[in-house]
Amino acid sequence: MEIGIDSFAAIFPDPVTGKLPSATDRMADLLEEVEIADRVGLDVFGIGEHHRAEFLDSAPAIILAAAAARTRQIRLTSAVTVLSAADPVRVFQEFATLDLISKGRAEIVVGRGSFGEAFPLFGLDTRAYDELFSEKLDLFLKLGETTNITWDGRYRPALRGEGVFPRPHQPRLPLWVGVGGTPASFARAGTLGLPLMVAIIGGSFERFRPLVDLYREAGLRAGHPPEKLKVGVHAMGFVGETDAEARDAFFPGWAHLTRTIGRERRWPAPTRHQFDDMASPEGAFLIGDPKTVATKMFKVSETLGGVSRITFQMSTAALDTAAMKRSIELLGTSVAPIVRATYETP
């Protein structure tokens, strides 16, 4: 099982003064987080894509390229690239360039996006939400197969044999499909035979088992071998010296972000009781001391019929950067050895 971290480069105001920290300093902290993850032997680090004031990750390929120059072995990926709102040719070029800089450590997770800000920002119609993604994913996959491409679509000008450069260091850029809770998205990834990255940010892991089964069934029906149908999980996670320490470090940022987004989406205000339920053995947060987190990772894999990768979304702890850096260290030095003693990395 591969173990990694996903960051949204969150930047939150000080809870006492209400003042935002320097975006420059926050970016420096983020790059240091990637360096720590590389040093302690984690497998992958992902940068999300958002177009909001709370996050600094609107250009993930640039952040990943900076990280590539400062790391040696960790794989670097998006988490996720909002392909629906982008030009697949440009995205391919960016990640092929990242792959050259990192000497073959680049990956990409593509998705439709759980936030809608990118669509009006780039002049796209949200009513074509699924059609945009389907067409652009088709083009992106074809770009990995040929340098000079001929292609027609509805949402992007046709290509008539133009060359797309540079080509990546790897024979093919590893690509995962990021999904939430839409059954058709699981089935599409399975039919295409693409690895699946499931975002589970609340509720329970059990409720996603039927969707993961749907993915695997669709893949087998399409003729893909079982070993090709990899499943990864992106979840809220944080490691502390004790369960209480981990929860106390993670809760303030989680509550701030949930409250901010909740006002937009008319959610009820988050509570500490709700948070503690999610961090309990039955909830979907991987938060606690190393033994607690490792035990819960075993449960995730068992519940979903086996997973190849788990990535921790811990950037909501950005209110306490020292605790977050310590969490990364503990994930690599204390949690990973427990997990790897049981699961071999594919």
Automatic annotation (TrEMBL):
Q: Which PANTHER family match?
A: BLR5498 PROTEIN (PTHR30137:SF8), LUCIFERASE-LIKE MONOOXYGENASE (PTHR30137)
Q: Which UniProt keywords apply?
A: Monooxygenase, Oxidoreductase
Domain (Luciferase-like) spans 1-300
What top-level branch of life does the organism fall under? Bacteria
Does the entry feature the keyword Oxidoreductase, yes or no?
Answer: yes
- NCBIfam families per UniProt: LLM_2I7G (TIGR03858)
Classification lineage: Bacteria, Pseudomonadati, Pseudomonadota, Gammaproteobacteria, Oceanospirillales
User: Cellular component per GO?
Assistant: cytosol
Respond yes or no to whether keyword Protein transport is given for this record. no
- The protein, known as: LLM class flavin-dependent oxidoreductase
- Name one molecular function that GO assigns to this entry: monooxygenase activity
